[in-house]
Amino acid sequence: MADADDVRRLALALPYVVEIDSDGFDFRVADKGFVWSYPERRPGKPRLIRTDIAVLYVGDEAEKQALLLGDPGVFFTTPAYDGLPLVMLRLAQVNIDRLRVLVADAWRMRAPDVLVGELDSADSSSPDPGCVEPVSASRRLSATQPARHARAIPARRQPVI
Questions:
Q1: Is residue 23 part of a domain?
Q2: In what order do the strands lie in the sheet with 86-90?
């Protein structure tokens, strides 16, 4: 069972991630969001920021549909997200290892190629025995790699490489 703190820890472990000031969580790489708290729309009321649900960038409609059909207890969508490569993820229904893969995959799809290549070369030169190897071949920085992320509240811009 995962929660908002797990999302924060996993997102900030990736390079060049910035956390945007919000009522929940909102993580970006190169000014592109890859995972954030679900802003639930309620008719006639302000949006409710749900930290028990993450909005996750998935890249394309095919991936979105595969997740929605493959595990409807974990993933869902709403009409407001029709046509967008985003799914909602019930954090309480996912384990940490799967969340690690999902967050890393979302980061990879939003990060510039040079950052993805940098992460891959850091992984290949310094394997992390504690890292669970995801099916999608996503990787994370090893514990020996220097930290290259910033938690910026309010948001600070990272150079786009």
A1: yes
A2: 17-19, 26-29, 32-42, 45-57, 86-90, 75-76
- The reply to whether 148 falls in a domain is no
Answer yes or no: pTM beyond 0.90.
no
Tens digit of each residue's pLDDT (9 = 90 or more) over 29-83: 999 999 999 999 999 999 999 999 999 999 999 999 999 999 999 999 999 999 9
**Does 40 fall in a domain?**
yes
- What backbone torsions phi and psi does residue 122 show, to the nearest 5 degrees? -65, -40
Q: What is the CATH number of the domain that holds 112?
A: 3.90.1150.30
Q: Which domain holds residue 38?
A: 4-125
Least Cα distance to 99 among 126, 69, 74 occurs for 74
Considering the domain boundaries, does residue 64 fall inside one? yes
